[in-house]
Amino acid sequence: MSGPDWLGAGLPHIWLPYTQMRTVSPPLPTVATEGCRIRLADGRELVDGIASWWTACHGYNHPHIRQAAMAQLARMPHVMFGGLVHEPALRLARRLSDLLPGDLERVFFTDSGSVAVEVAIKMAVQYWLNRGVRGRSRLVAFRGGYHGDTLATMAVCDPEEGMHSLFAGVLPEHFIADLPRDDASRDALERLMAREAGQVAAILVEPLVQGAGGMLFHDAASLRFLRDLADRHGVLLILDEVFTGFGRTGSLFACEQAGIVPDIITLSKALSGGTVPLAATVARRHVFAAFLSDDPLHALMHGPTFMANPLACACANASLDLFAGEPRLEQVAAIGAQMRAELEPCRHLPGVRDVRVMGAIGVVELERIGDMNRLKARLVEQGVWVRPFRTIVYLTPSFTITPGELAKLTGAIRTVLADPP
Ligand SMILES: *Cc1c(COP(=O)(O)O)cnc(C)c1O
């Protein structure tokens, strides 16, 4: 095998994510990142269209985050968060509660989006138990949703995406409904809640955009309906902003566009500016209050070893500095406008079903993708890193991408889709 020595030596020992290892086309050995570019071992450079699964919102290797990371690395890369606290985490918790709407003010740190959602589910279920209400252990979640890969979060994903039938008997059963987009789906949800509310701990939804489910958009009115529905039936509303948080949809948090405050919100992906794994589950005052008691069993029973890792929190604080000091939301608006103009011509290409843009998310949806491996390879030949999945080719670039780099991404998509594999 050609390429660096570590490639041939290590590849036979690696198990790749969501990959049929028998037929996988070889992954690209990567040696460096800078700005919106990924450098491969053979010297080629790709313009990155997806910011490493939606994390690198300021581009790679931003000097401000790098400096903060190096200073924290020298002082205290990690210390346990049981019985000890530290400045990076406490400063970050305070800043997140200042940025989030309403009284979302209690921050529980973890290290991945899936675990942040797991913690939100545990919080919601235990909220009722602590208040002496039994039987409210199920969630209402939505078709097209994605909340993570762990067993508890698979159970609240889209039934097919979450492989509910394959893992039947292993996954807890929740209520999976259609998003309330029209009268029929609103009525169906009303009926579901009228019948089952006594079993429901919380409604869980990704606000405005269902990301991994296919970049499916819904509007702010749907979210306002869910807030109202939850209030009328006295259940909690959890917003999973692991993907939408930190500017991606055009506002710092998607829930701002609906003017609603969830009872619990989850954050990760762009939280540390795409550097070190970090996640947070943030609860409102009344949720936290249900855990205050003389009964030791009323404490939140969760505590990951690396929770509130100081290095990750330092990176997240530096990332928030950049949101405060640089015009990120203006950049998001400009990226959206450019993608709208430059992806729109795809609408007339053969096999294109839809073109849609929200914030810094641009999507070309196809009827079908015939040869996915070939499509991916053709995009790389164009000098771009774009990862189509299901039936969509999408862009979620860093907010610091230049108009020229973005034009290279949209141009590559137009070129490849004009002559689809
Ligand atoms: C990616 C994602 C998750 C899972 O995050 P991981 O860090 O991969 O565990 C959960 N919810 C949403 C909305 C996501 O996009």
| Amino- and carboxy-terminal Cα gap | 27 Å
Strand content: 15-25%
User: Which sequence of SSEs, written as H and E, runs from N to C?
Assistant: HEEEHHHEHEHEHEEEHEHEEHHHEEHEEH
Computed CA radius of gyration, to the nearest angstrom: 22 Å
Query: What share of residues is helical?
Result: 25-40%
Number of strands: 16
Number of helices: 14
Please state the oligomeric state of the protein chains shown.
single chain
Within the largest sheet, what's the order of strands? 4-12-11-10-7-5-6
Which hetero ligands occur in this complex?
pyridoxal-5'-phosphate
Residue-averaged pLDDT, rounded?
A: 96
Q: Label the structural class.
A: alpha/beta
Please state the overall shape, judged from the principal axes of the Cα atoms.
globular
Largest sheet, in brief, is: 7 strands, mixed
Low-confidence stretches: none
How would you characterize the overall build of this protein?
With about 425 residues, the chain is an alpha/beta fold. The protein contains 14 helices and 16 strands. Strand 8 (about 210) and strand 9 (about 215) form a beta hairpin. Pyridoxal-5'-phosphate (PLP) binds near residues 117, 206 and 211.
Summarize this entry quickly.
Homodimer. The protein has 421 residues and is an alpha/beta fold.
Index terms:
S-adenosyl-L-methionine, 16 strands, alpha/beta, Aminotrans_3, 7-stranded mixed sheet, 4-stranded mixed sheet, transferase, 421 residues, binds pyridoxal-5'-phosphate, Adenosylmethionine-8-amino-7-oxononanoate aminotransferase
